[in-house]
């Protein structure tokens, strides 16, 4: 602008109209320089430069006029000059807008390119990282592949060894199998031979124990017929020896009978046993030896007053242990015998402890329960008591423990397994009838499955009578729901023969079970039975269910027990 004013001041009279546009075109061209030099982010610099450029372009004529070198110039009219100014102004804005548009698009592209470059850079870094990971994994896979190949070789070698051992084992197995077949055959033969010998031994024991009873009884009878008054001293001694030997032989045969009975498992039925009653019986038997001045017997059975087991065996166990405690008491001190009873979920536990002579368990542990073994010889005994106790315990599904110290004490603890089913212990089981024993109410019962024949009817009642005699059961239940029709002859046989004999052995209550007991004909029939039984001293009731009959007998038992007390 200064150069334009200066040149026009020197050559003002010589100016042409183009001289007024030359510098204006330079200013117009210079308008693109800010857009070139500055970024759109440098808004302050860009705006200042553009405003300065625009101001110079607009004020071009005013500045020149101020310095006295303004337009007009001869040869160009004012209208043309003004139009040229308008064109230059429009050109300025078009040029500036185009440059700015290009500038903005270029910078936008640059920014986009930078972002893309950043993303590419980041992607390259990620790819480099992934590539490094892949390379590491590749190296690891190579190492594992080598290890796998090595392990595979070892596995193949091991597999070859296994196959060899398998073949060897198969060969041994075949040999063992053939040997096992031979052994099994030998074992079967030995077992059959053992069974044969065992049966022969049982038969021999049975023959010895029973066939000797007759001759032995005759011998005892003959010896008792001796008139000892006419015998001299030597013959009397011989006669006494004969009697003593015969009596000892009789005791051995009786013991042998007991052992045979236990081993043949004839005692299978479990009854409710009052320990108080059994101990009272034992005390009465041993009352001559139970001198209260010399012996104290302490009984503690409150926690287990009753057991369900085989009465003769329980009696025998307690009798043998208590009699041993009396027999082997220490003479220098007052004897103390403690009898205790308790129970757990599986066993009844009976204990007999004394303060007697004691047993040297280290010396006699292995032979303590053997037959005819004795450990004190200053008293009488045959050495069969403890053997029977152990045998009976095992027969009842239990075991025995012993603790003892010489000259201090001996304690025997008996474990008797509790029976699983005491309500339905089968005594006889056939398609037409079942005979059972219910230990909870002390009753023999029959469940008929008729119709039945006269022979079956009588056979079942004969067997039932035998069980009533054996267990002295005061109660009898008959489920006659499916019995069928019984002839008058069979009924009279039962009323006149079976029931009177059963009543003699303690039968006191009879119950019949029939669902349609209220039917008129059936009631008359059962009332006739009731009338017949009342004459013979038995109480009779009719019920519609087995539970009702069982409850009646349980209540009757409790009432009878309370009356005794």
Automatic annotation (TrEMBL):
Any Pfam family hit: HATPase_c
Annotated transmembrane regions: 20-39, 46-71, 83-102
Protein known as: histidine kinase
Lineage top rank: taxon: Bacteria
Keywords on record: Coiled coil, Kinase, Membrane, Phosphoprotein, Transferase, Transmembrane, Transmembrane helix
Histidine kinase domain: residues covered: 207-420
Record-listed E.C. numbers: 2.7.13.3
GO molecular function, one term: phosphorelay sensor kinase activity
Naturally occurring in which organism (per UniProt): Chryseotalea sanaruensis
SMART domains linked to this entry: HATPase_c, HisKA
Coiled-coil boundaries: 159-200
Catalysis performed (reactions): ATP + protein L-histidine = ADP + protein N-phospho-L-histidine
